[in-house]
Amino acid sequence: xxxxxxxxxxxxxxxVRGKKKGKKGDSGGGDEEEGFKLAPSTFIPGIDEASTNYDxxxxxxxxxxxxxxxxxxxxxxxxxRGEVEGEIRVQVDDLMRQELKNLKAALQKDxxxxxxxxSAKKKGKKxxxxxxxKGKKEKDLTPDRTIESLYEELVKEGILxxxxxxxxxxxxxxxxxxxxxxxxxxxxxxxxxxxxRRVTTEYGILPMGSQTVHETAPFIKSMLIxxxxxxxxxxLVNAICSELGANLMDLTAENICGKYPGKAGLTMLLHLVxxxxxxxxxxxxxxxxxxxxxIKKVPKNDMSDPKRLKxxxxxxxxxxxxxxxxxxxxxxxxxxxGDVKGMCQVYQKIILIPRPDYASRxxxxxxxxxxxxxxxxxxLDLSSLAKISDGYTPGHIxxxxxxxxxxxRVQQLTRKPLTASEFVTPLARVDPIYKxxxxxxxxxxxxxxxxKKRQDLLKSEVEEK
Length: 465
What we know:
Blueprint: H1 5-24, H2 44-58, H3 73-111, H4 115-134, H5 147-156, E1 160-161, H6 179-184, H7 193-209, H8 211-216, E2 222-226, H9 233-244, E3 247-250, H10 253-256, H11 262-279, E4 283-287, H12 312-319, E5 326-332, H13 340-346, E6 349-352, H14 358-371, H15 382-388, H16 394-404, H17 407-411, H18 424-428, H19 435-447, H20 449-464
Parallel strand pairs: 2-5, 2-6, 3-4, 4-5
Antiparallel strand pairs: 1-3
């Protein structure tokens, strides 16, 4: 689910290297395993350079008499001297090349080389052709249109949509403090809601929020958020957009059905999405029910043409560069219905949202009751309520709290405090998420690339014990 992904990746690489060394017959079997090591940070050189610059210029500098913080002419001259020298060097190089070219032409003329011009022309043509192929750019289908008109068209067609303002902190959930204990018992725990929030922040918000970080940090183009109904998949998408102030493009099959028909229409749609997305960064491209794009057999009653983007999505994502702050985010209720291999090719990161554990359910009831105007008292046994609500998602819990805490019930709280039994009835009307469905999500994840590496890790740990 993206949790400890870096650890699994590094372990897998070390294991492969260890096998290769074993085949070569290296001695030293008594050496201990390296253990987990963080990858070298690409931000450290910049920090070191800034620290060195401070030590050399500003650390010993006395600024007590410079209250108005006036500029230092010598510092500016020293800085600009290098820039001027670089500009003059370019001009001098151009003049020298031109002079050299004139000398060669004069020598050829004196020597009477008649074939020189012809061969030079042929070589020039070849170079032009090669250069043209290398510098070939994607054709702009809308060169004469302004960005405002393109933006307006996407809004009218319902592709560029509004979203509710949600903070990532609104995705509530506690950490799983039993994770280490379960791993020691050879049981792989499901990630907690707090883990999901952290990974979403690291993959979706931090890199997209800064152009420098996006170009320096690991380049993540897409991710898939999968989980049962009511676990907050769309809420996470809205939270990413809200925290970034990003544009949200909706390419869900139901939303683009009947719009931009035909192959030419689809090409124009994707061109508009990418062009506007690049010019007005950051941009999030949302695809709901992402498994339908890779579904093996389309149901007869599904008229939305869900496989319309199947061939185009991998091509678009492959062309994206680190300069493009665009992220494709898919959500899925039943990811096992789609082709796992195809989904892994499109979505770099796969995040599973589990059922909330006891600690998360306790926190959800507590915070939601207070937000809806309720009061906590000795008559409200939150611990028992969290215990009996096992299997219910945050959406179910929010629905139950809204059902109980009506405006009239809030006014009665001073005379009639809340009790846990009031929340049982609305919860009993909805079906919880059973373990069988959760096992299906685990089975899907085990088939993914990272899931297979995780299985290898667990097997090796068991063998070592």
